[in-house]
Amino acid sequence: MLSVLRLKHPAVTVENEVVEPSSQQLHNYRVSVAQKPELDYIKFTWNKMTASEFEEAWKVKKLTKRADFIHMIQMLYYVKDPGATISFFQSLLDKNGKLLIILVSGESGWGRLWRTYRHQLCNTEISQCVTTGDIKSFLDSTGVSYQSYELPSQMDITECFTEGDEKGELLLDFLTEVLDFSKTASPELRAGVLQLLRHPDCSVESDGKVIFNNNLGVIVIDPLC
């Protein structure tokens, strides 16, 4: 994204506030940036903290600067209150700014799986099972204007249906976000999840393969009026 921004606006200097609680991921980002000398026009501020810690620090410092672009890609699963998080970051946008959110689509197989087995699979301490459908409902209820798009994506999950298949078991752990799901889930829950994963609402079967609907949703939010 930063490379594309440079192409579009070659003379502009950029301040990039990086917010990431994982030391390893922050290190990976630093290494990636160091390997791209063309990004030397960017001043990076590395914030090793969660989104809520960043919000708290911002308010304590009473900062007034505004952002032209904020992206929250595959991250709202890890906050306690997605709506409050969106509202805070939207408040930081400058008059022509944009807030970009990417999550799994509410119309994806994930959406159907989580709506059906939310209580059995989802961590209630965070918003692990949030989709763009949930975010749109929040935005509609608060009267916030936005644009939405779908990013088609699919995943071959055929191995999940071969009992004992190592790759299939790992895929099942990934889909349920439960470690050793087959060993820890009740037989009824495992059977129900497998049946749903094969259902047309989640997947299509073609040429002997089960292809999971992995679509992502994109939401672009404008500044507060």
TrEMBL record:
| The protein's name | Histamine N-methyltransferase-like
PROSITE patterns hit by this protein: SAM_HNMT
Oligomer status and interactors: Monomer.
Tell me, which GO biological process terms does this entry list? methylation
- Originating organism: Solea senegalensis
Listed A to Z, the keywords are: Methyltransferase, S-adenosyl-L-methionine, Transferase
**Family annotation (InterPro entries):** HHMT-like
Respond yes or no to whether keyword Transport is given for this record: no
- Spell out the molecular function terms from Gene Ontology: N-methyltransferase activity
